[in-house]
Amino acid sequence: AKESGRNGYRFYRQEMQQQVTERALLEKALHSAVSNDELYLVYQPQVNENGLLIGFEVLLRWSNDELGLVPPDRFIPIAEEMGMIEEIGYWVMDTACRQLTVWQEKGLPLSFRGIAINISPYQFAKDSFVDTVKEVIDNTHVDPSLLDFEITEGMLVENIASVAEKMWLLKEQQVRFSIDDFGTGYSSLRYLQHFPIDQLKIDQSFVRDLSSDPNSHVIINTIVSMAAHMNLSVLAEGVESYAEKGILEAIGCARFQGYYFSKPVKSDLATQYLSHSTLF
Ligand code: C2E
Ligand code: CA
Ligand code: CA
Ligand code: CA
């Protein structure tokens, strides 16, 4: 038992060491990811109940020669800790807006409402955030009413006054806001009334459990009916099957996103979706 304990300890130490090394590698590589052109964007369709394309969520990808494709859940928290998320977030917004202007010039389908961009709480908290957004809008000539910023519930409970002020300033620019992963955080709808919010995105964990867990059904039902009272749209994320779409529709949800319709795709396929009036 002593032996295995010692081996266990050594194994643990090796594993720790490996994690530290991997983290150091990630940090080093992340420093030059933007300048080395290692970042790119993918676009996931958002559709309405008739299967028409209403938007794309913009999702970040990082492909590094040594590390391979690093998932955003892995590197974004590190970028946030390193103070690099502002630079990366700027790159995302600028690149996505340039793509959107290209699509705008080709003519967008009537059903299309715009692109959704994930905003890190660290990025949003910067005093310069509002000016940065205006700068991107000016530089890219994007139609700001086609922008939907996805923020998280947690951001709304701290510094309510300054968060609300920034949101209202951006709202004046016609930008829209969605609450991402709704239902996983603070779940009180009361604070929502302080902010100019347009849409709630029901977290995929509720959708995943929809057919097996009656609680998820109740939660989604509650979110949908309260959103209706508050005049907010609701979009369900992580929809993976026809059955899930059907249940959500019966509850009253009219916007969807998930693998059932399409995985996130590169810009050329997204362009095809737009120009062929694809039905999902
Ligand atoms: P999120 O904002 O909740 O994005 C949804 C995630 O669910 C995406 O993962 C998407 O690919 C995945 N997804 C979409 N449909 C389905 C489905 O039907 N089933 C399942 N199982 N998954 C689905 P992804 O692209 O790996 O992004 C993970 C997270 O990384 C995002 O979660 C978001 O929090 C963050 N992220 C991604 N891009 C950005 C970005 O540009 N900026 C910031 N700040 N965060 C980002
Ligand atoms: Ca999101
Ligand atoms: Ca989400
Ligand atoms: Ca998420």
TrEMBL record:
Coiled coil: none annotated. Residues 23-278 form the EAL domain. It comes from the Bacteria. This is EAL domain-containing protein. The chain holds residues 518 to 797 of 804 of the full protein.
